[in-house]
Amino acid sequence: MTATAFSYVPGEHEAEKASNSYLMSMVAVVAGLPLPIVNVIASVIFYLSNRNGTYFVRWHATQSMFSQLGLGIFNSVSFWWTVSIVFGDENVSNNYFAYLFTVVIFNLIEFVSTIYAAIETRKGKHVDFWFFGGLTHLICKP
Amino acid sequence: MAKTLLQGFILILCFFGLFFALQQVDFVTLFKVKKISDTTEKKLGEMIWQTIENTETVVENDSVNELIDKIVLRITDKNNIDRDKISVHVVQSDEINAFAMPGDHLVIYTGLIASCDDESELAGVICHEMAHIQQNHVMKKLVKEIGLSALIAITTGGNSPQLVKKLAKELSSAAYDRELETEADRTGVDYMIKAQLDPEKLADFLYKLASAEYLPEQFYWVSTHPESKERAKAIVKYIKDEEIVKKTVLSKTEWNYLKTAF
Lengths: 142, 262
Description:
The complex is a heterodimer of chains A (142) and B (262).
Chain A: E1 2-4, H1 12-32, H2 38-50, H3 55-87, H4 94-122, E2 126-128, H5 132-139
Antiparallel strand pairs in A: 1-2
Chain B: H1 2-23, H2 27-30, H3 33-55, E1 57-58, H4 62-78, E2 87-92, E3 98-101, E4 105-109, H5 110-115, H6 119-134, H7 137-146, H8 148-155, H9 161-173, H10 178-194, H11 200-210, H12 220-223, H13 228-238, H14 252-260
Parallel strand pairs in B: 2-4
Antiparallel strand pairs in B: 1-2, 3-4
Helix pairs in contact in B: 3-8, 3-9, 4-14, 6-10, 6-11, 7-8, 11-13
């Protein structure tokens, strides 16, 4: 994750909106626990409602959505694995714990990154996530 | 583009690398998962058995228990099952029933013994229930029905005799999933073959009870085990090519005594 210069200096209103894209997914994570889908839906809705916004807002809404989607896949696996243990025939195993903790660690990294991105973008600074930033650059054009 | 792909690849590699590293940790032992579930199962078994003991008449006749034990011993010995682990109880009741309980308890109703024409029929039912025990079907069923947290709550202070009674009823009068029943049938038949008992007799027993010659309230083991005829057919098909050695456990006198002891 790196804070770099953007192609232009975003205005105050843009910075606030871009920051909101991260804040929204973060609040949704807390509100939606343990369902891993709520934060993904929140970031998708935010993206859809801002896809015609300014480049800075659009870019960060896209990055936020991608990062949530990426993690959402892994979270869904852990969620359904847990469901099958609690309600199904599956047993608690070392593999389950290993997967669960891996997902928790990645979620924590994502959570911290999201807070950092929300703060930095609020200041009008541009933040590139590892991989998701590159992916956003490929898709989101000025 | 190449840089992004590389970053994606590294990210996935990090995820699975961390997953692999964490797999090396024995979390199940670390969190005492097995101990908790074993203790829960044992405690639950004791509580359910106590409820049955208080509401039903347990057969204390040593001769009967010794003869049942002879059959059970043959099955456990030949199948490398720890005999001491399983508690077998004979209960006085007209119901044609037998069922497994948590904590490796096996309950046999006298109605079942009286309805068997051959020791292998009885042994077949015992093998089937023992397969449920060995494959942990009992806890799987209860976890599915009321949830693991509720089971732990019952055993760790929640004084809930009504719920324990409900569990006892659930175990004695409700079938397992079809998949688990089929698995128990097959494993039960394998136990019988290894113990030199005739598995065809289990199929005969299922046929016999399915052909409504008993009162509906009597044949619990069949009503809780649906599709008996299909199961009997599946057993016959399963053992078709097996070479079966048959060796009786009880003498004719012993069997006749057991059948008429109630």
